Amino acid sequence: MSLLRITSPHAHGPLSTTRVMQTVLLATLPGVAALVWFFGPGVLVNIAVTSFFAIAFEAAVLKLRGRPVLRTLDDHSAVVTATLLAIALPPYAPWWLLAVGAAASILLAKQLYGGLGYNPFNPAMVGYVVLLISFPVQMSTWAAPRGLAAEVPGLVDALQACFIPASFDGATMATPLDILRQNSDQSLAALYAGTPQLGAWGGVGWQWVSLGFLAGGLWMLYRGIFTWHAPVAMLAALAALAALFYDGGGPGSGGSPLFHLLSGATMFGAFFIVTDPVSSAVSTRGRLIYGALIGVLIYLIRTRGNYPDAVAFAVLIMNFAAPFIDYYTQPRSYGHARGDRP
């Protein structure tokens, strides 16, 4: 009797690549809704335009490589990359900035290495860093949130800012993390009293955006999209360092743990970027180390570096180290002594 020669994988669970990508897109909705409420529909235009360019670039490369275009695009990975990149960009960005970011994410960080599953770096964060280093003025132009601006821009304003940038004149201001980084002579109490952008927990608007991404991340965790190790380790390390070096609110204070957790891209990064299964560590201990070191780097760059928010840089640095971490944290094989290498 001949036996069936069946290679792995031997079982197909409900979490296919397409299903995972769809779940990630759905999980961004609470955070995106908060962004739209506080900053206007510019983020929706960002997502739509960046997704268009990402799909176009991916389709062109797949065609050149002789790969199936429609079947590959059907996994929604290009749209997920574009959405995560667009969320991180300032609303009301010009179309060419979105195009350059999509090109860096899809062409440079993904397809150059062979496509989905082969990229050593997080594509969305590569696109973000390329834009931040190349176009610092455009990347630091954040709209004033609802409650501080006289009027939040509407959809017509968002389209105008995207496709006719020179004709758009919106109210902009520094982000809460940038305000805290530049402070050197005021106590935090005085800074909070004289700065309307700073709210009770974090920045005005930003604290609710962070809670929105936290809700989406917890939903993905409940659905089994990723394990808790990397995001919890990152948040715990960041909070621990912020608490350790918090001096009660002096001029040189780096900010309270709650401020760091609910400002900037902390929650977005913890649940939507750090959990990338391709570019992160894969072992259980490795995920804990990987996430904790990202949290440490975020705090160090925020308080000692030149960039107020450091999630992208911290993630890319640790993407370099992920294979090294996995090598030294892989489980011991049955029948081998600890430390043996096959």
UniProtKB/TrEMBL annotation:
It comes from Pseudohaliea rubra DSM 19751. Its main location: membrane. GO terms for biological process: electron transport chain; transmembrane transport. Its EC number is 7.-.-.-. It is a multi-pass membrane protein. One of its GO terms (cellular component) is plasma membrane. Keywords: Cell inner membrane, Cell membrane, Electron transport, Flavoprotein, FMN, Membrane, Phosphoprotein, Translocase, Transmembrane, Transmembrane helix, Transport. The gene is rnfD. Part of a membrane-bound complex that couples electron transfer with translocation of ions across the membrane. It comes from the Bacteria. The complex is composed of six subunits: RnfA, RnfB, RnfC, RnfD, RnfE and RnfG. The keyword NAD does not apply. It is found in: Cell inner membrane. Belongs to the NqrB/RnfD family. It holds the Pfam family NQR2_RnfD_RnfE. Its cofactor is FMN. This is Ion-translocating oxidoreductase complex subunit D. The chain crosses the membrane at residues 20-38, 44-62, 69-89, 198-221, 228-246, 258-275, 287-304, 310-328. The modification FMN phosphoryl threonine is found at T175. The keyword Nucleus does not apply. It is an enzyme of class 7 (translocase).
